Amino acid sequence: MLVKSVFFPGIEVSVGITFQDGDRFNSCQVIYSQFGLAIHQNDHQARRRFVEWAQNEIAVVPDFHKRILFSDEAHFWLNGYVNKQNCRIWNKANPQVYVETPLHPETLTVWCTLWAGGIIGPYFFKNDEGHNVTVNGDRYRAMITNFFIPELNNHDVQELWFQQDGATCHTARATIDLLKDTFGDRLISRFRPVNWPPRACDLTPLDYFLWGYVKSLVYADKPQKLDHLEDNIRRVITDIRPQMLEKVIENWTSRLDYSGGSHMPEIIFRICQVIYSQFGLAIHQNDHQARRRFAEWAHNEIAVVPDFHKTILFSDEAHFWLNGCVNKQNCRIWSAANPQGYVKTPLYPEKLTIWCALWAGGILLQKRRRSQRYSQW
Fold this sequence. Notes:
The protein is built from 10 helices and 11 strands. The protein is α/β, with parallel strands linked by helices.
């Protein structure tokens, strides 16, 4: 697989140009690595087995996907802190840049269950003194016994399945036995009646919808206390409409089709669309075939002339604004409503338009000349 790496401040994006069956794992490795995840060689087979099982169940019971209780936890930091492992500064030398964060940032650990019938939760993990704590096996089992099971009293549990990921606190024998008392073999978990594939956050509605949606709203009024943040989380989750949940669950069946592997080139195309849109670019359905044809031609030329790539003069232009202006098409404010945000830029910013040619022999650059008012070269 030929991979193109694109670097810009804070983000590294690697986009596959040619895709074959053997490349799918590597393509996913590159994509997942952007989220701090490391997938393993046998993950794809585990996903395929789960997808085939789920699709078989849906073939027998068309609304089977509406009977699954998807569960997960998430951390909410009071200061909106983002894991520093996801922040990158690209430089040839150590920039000696420091990001100040609290040594022990205040945080809430929240658990929810989401299904077609609604959302159970949020549940906030606290100790006996009422202080916010993270989750462990004992606290998880206490939550199931004292909160989750009582919340199910209004539902026909015999028709429902329960899903959880492979976190250690979820898969301890005592936890599994407790869940089996309610769900029997209708349990989707790591190594249990139905094996939930590892590192499958794209198949969990809480990961691909709920947590991102909630976190996009709860910090809008800049909460200064955990109680305020907790109230915001409760309010946002309570306001989620049933129609929205129906669409989220229906989307899960489409994700099964993609995760089976038959649509992997289309998945990569969609991801490329999203990535390129951040640069103000729009790629089209036939772009992939054009790139494939060019890649095949280049490979053939290099097979005949091994240093062929060193004989190509690559050329392009770029704009440099005096005020460091960035095209506003590359700036996005994601919000459910119009945020009424404005970016002030000069009406006629002074700029340079520069052309270069780059090849193995060096760089061709126009010698410095006195620029006119608007730098028309």
